[in-house]
Amino acid sequence: MRRSLLVRLLAASITIAVCSVAATAWLAARTTTSAIQHEQGQVLADDAQIYDTLIGYAAGHTDWSAVTPILKRLTGRTGRHITLTTQERRPIAASGTATTLPTRASALLDPLRADPALLPGVKADGIDPRAVGPYRLPRAEREELLSRADKVQSCMRGAGFPVGVTEEPSGRPSVVVAGDNSTRRKADEVCGRYVLEDPTATEKQALDRLNTLVAGCLKRQNLGPVAVGLDFAPSGKDSEFVQRCIDTARREQLAPYVAQPALLFVATPAGSAAAPGFDLSSANTVRVAGVAALVLVLTVAVTVTVGTRLVRPLRALTDAARRPAQQHLRVPVTTHDEIGHLAAAFNDLAERRERVEVQRKAMVSDVAHELRTPLSTIRGWLEAAQDGLAVSDEAFVASLLEEALLLQHIVDDLQHLAQADAGRLRLHPEPLSLRELLDHVAAAHRGGAETAGVTLTTRIEDTPVLHADPARLRQAIGNLLSNAVRHTPPGGSVTLRCRCAGDEVVIEVADTGSGIAADDLPRVFDRFWRADKSRSRQTGGSGLGLAIVRQLTEAHGGTVSVTSTPNTETVFTLHLPR
Question: pTM, whole model, 2 decimals?
């Protein structure tokens, strides 16, 4: 398909269309994408900042009473109008004058059920780490833990470990060792970081309350009690159900210490800058003109290239067709598409015309030669009789009649071949006994064979009934027998054989004559061809008999072939369908 001319033309059109559409889309996208991406990125960053700030406020306060200054500060920084309402949409606070709220809230502000997509630091439980509630350490406990952390840090630095100290939202310090797990384990073994893992009195009190809530939840689910530590992570085969109880208990424990959930509405204030659009600046104008020119050049180049490749072979075909017919010119085949197939067909046509012309000339010469010999004989005898040199007796008339019959035989053969070529060779098939037909043909040629000193025998293995034209089949087999007797020297033999082979009937005519050379076998069925290159008529025949045999056999749906061993045996074989 990729070599098809239609496909190539379609591909060229699609290429031009795609390039044009792509250029247009690229121009439209290029002029707006940068501004839109900047705007969207800034909007996402502003939304994330607003959400993080407000949910952090809710995690550290029990109500929203002091949030208004924060809203105004965020509005001044982002240019967005911010409104907080209860889940029933009762106003809580706003950054400016009241406006119509959108139909859908931007987010739900609940530090106990935070959105991990908007707050990356939140774990799967959705509890904001900044919501510490009863786990917030008093100053004394925080200073005690910080002192321990400094000692561990000094030990690790002295041992060559990269280390730092961070402080969690509850005020608990944490020693962070850089590196892989093996490095951290080694650092712990050397300096004993575990001294920081024990809960303080405040944390123990909070954990006791949490474990009480967790135990109640587990009991309701018929699960055994567990001890929850500061990592709030369960272990064991029922860890999934235990984690649910821990998350539920933590929300219940932290609820009094955080603000109630609120709906967040973020909108662009009226009068703000509109969304970025198509900016037809001078730079964009030059870009449009440049891309349009590029598409135009590409279109012209593709069209010229495809058109040139199409026109060149067509011109060659036109020039070759206008030349005189006797030149039989060929055109080069340079492609494998429809035009290439046309050029190949043109070359085949020129070759066939040349071959037919050669055959026509040879046939005219052969016909003239075949007719000239008997006509010359008749003319010579008649002139001799006219001049008184020959006596018009019975022998004279018999000689002229023999030559006239030879002329009639040649004309009949030519007529049969002409009918076959024109498709007017009519067959009248009927069921016939092949044994009777072969015996009849053999009997008709046995007298001539005995006169030539040749033994003619028949060997019929089967007696099949064949559906064929008896007259035409006798003519084909008779031609083979006549040809075999004519080319077999005295003392030789000709054998007519018949046998069945599956769905076919095989008829063979074998002789012990001079045979046919291997180089001549492909031509034995050509018209007027004879192995006698001198064209002497010592062996008789016009050179049309075997051509007629092939035409009659093929008209019956069969095939004819020949094998020969010079000076030993020649076998002509007919394969006819039953």
Answer: 0.44
